[in-house]
């Protein structure tokens, strides 16, 4: 059983156009706060990111934001967080978010969200970490992506054991249960974080 004291959430800096995504983002923040799981995220007060943070903060949750200096604009950065960490660049930001987190959850988002998800799952595939990685498939948002990944397995570009590193659920409680129960495959650690 994995102990989840902190979870990093990857999600959009835009709100999108579907109310269910916003409500699930707020609910995720609330659930993390209720279960005393610290939220680690990209420190923005805008978009889905801002809604997750609001959900946690409104329920007395701990929220740690990590943002690179060049994105630290007044209209973007959330000033009411439990802790705000500033990094020099995006790579340092992602390393810090990884170091602070016991697991990862991805909500709907755009290119940046997908980039964060695929980098963290690639790190797991390479044996750089063994933390659970969850995908909250709100309203079937990621159905096409999951179909693509399944096709990659069928075509021989993705091993099934690596596909299964991604824990998927459309329910927050169900996803957290899967993350707590996650047992990583034993892979040789042939890379070190310093080489990423």
UniProtKB/TrEMBL annotation:
InterPro entries: LOG, LOG_fam. GO terms for cellular component: cytosol. It catalyses: AMP + H2O = D-ribose 5-phosphate + adenine. SUPFAM superfamilies: MCP/YpsA-like (SSF102405). Its EC number is 3.2.2.n1. GO terms for biological process: cytokinin biosynthetic process. Keywords: Cytokinin biosynthesis, Hydrolase. It comes from the Bacteria. GO terms for molecular function: AMP nucleosidase activity. Belongs to the LOG family. This is Cytokinin riboside 5'-monophosphate phosphoribohydrolase.
